[in-house]
Recover the amino acids of this structure.
């Protein structure tokens, strides 16, 4: 693009980067110019200096590669829809178990009864995640599940994210059963919600450290996860703080494992496989409950 005697070389929205380019060219004895426009900062040189300027910038960038900038991964529409779908499923299942078909022994067969879990009814660790005692319980967990499952899905993918959250919730219920022994009965998706928070904390921390961010900032997701546990998981006489803590810890371990195995969300085939496995596992556990 010719602008009089000046040739446009590059445009950037980062004025620090533009000034860095300018300094590189000035150090080579060239005469660059910067202009601020609606599209960003424009770097130009005279027509006679174009070849030398391009060669100088290329050599500088080969010797000084820029680190990937920190960014917050946006929640895509697929992740948001996955969270909303799970929230709707929890509300519909609440209507079925409490309002439409209350005569069936949903809670007797599906609750996280610690004694029965330790005796071998492991399906209860999964089925209990779908049971809620009242509207407020179901609605609060549905909203939390939509938010945090969506966040996990934006980092790990919809299928893998859903499978991880389900596994974290089931693992949290199992650990809670070992912790309490009998008698102890729990229901609700909050253990899985805190599992999602644990996954976000550990996965976010590891990914931040890999991006060569400062150590202090890399631990921010863990601090946020613990803060959420304190704010959401420890209030009220009916809150099972140990179940929340177990879910958080199991989720944190899963996040570390996934971050170690794959640095980014896997492909579509694995996402479908993980999502299908999660749905099949949920259906199979309820089948075992009513056999």
């Amino acid at each position: 693009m010719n602008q009089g005697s000046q040739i446009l070389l590059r445009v950037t929205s980062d004025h620090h980067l533009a000034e860095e380019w300018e300094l590189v060219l000035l150090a080579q004895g060239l005469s660059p110019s910067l202009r601020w426009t609606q599209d960003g900062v424009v770097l130009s040189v005279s027509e006679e200096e174009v070849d030398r300027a391009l060669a100088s910038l290329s050599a500088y960038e080969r010797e000084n590669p820029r680190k990937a900038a920190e960014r917050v991964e946006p929640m895509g529409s697929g992740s948001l829809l996955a969270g909303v779908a799970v929230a709707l499923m929890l509300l519909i299942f609440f209507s079925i178990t409490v309002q439409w078909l209350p005569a069936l022994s949903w809670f007797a067969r599906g609750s996280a009864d610690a004694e029965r879990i330790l005796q071998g009814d492991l399906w209860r660790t999964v089925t209990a995640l779908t049971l809620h005692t009242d509207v407020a319980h179901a609605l609060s967990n549905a909203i939390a599940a939509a938010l945090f499952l969506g966040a996990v899905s934006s980092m790990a993918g919809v299928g893998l994210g859903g499978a991880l959250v389900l596994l974290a919730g089931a693992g949290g219920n199992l650990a809670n059963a070992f912790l309490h022994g009998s008698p102890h009965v729990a229901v609700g998706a909050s253990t899985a919600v805190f599992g999602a928070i644990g996954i976000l904390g550990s996965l976010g921390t590891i990914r931040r450290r890999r991006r060569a961010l400062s150590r202090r900032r890399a631990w921010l997701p863990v601090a946020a996860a613990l803060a959420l546990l304190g704010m959401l998981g420890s209030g009220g006489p009916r809150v099972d703080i140990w179940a929340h803590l177990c879910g958080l810890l199991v989720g944190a371990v899963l996040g570390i494992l996934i971050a170690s195995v794959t640095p980014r969300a896997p492909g579509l085939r694995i996402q479908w496989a993980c999502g299908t496995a999660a749905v099949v596992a949920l259906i199979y556990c309820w089948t075992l409950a009513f056999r």
Q: What stands out?
A: The longest strand covers residues 6-12. Confidence is low (pLDDT under 50) at residues 68-73, 212-219.
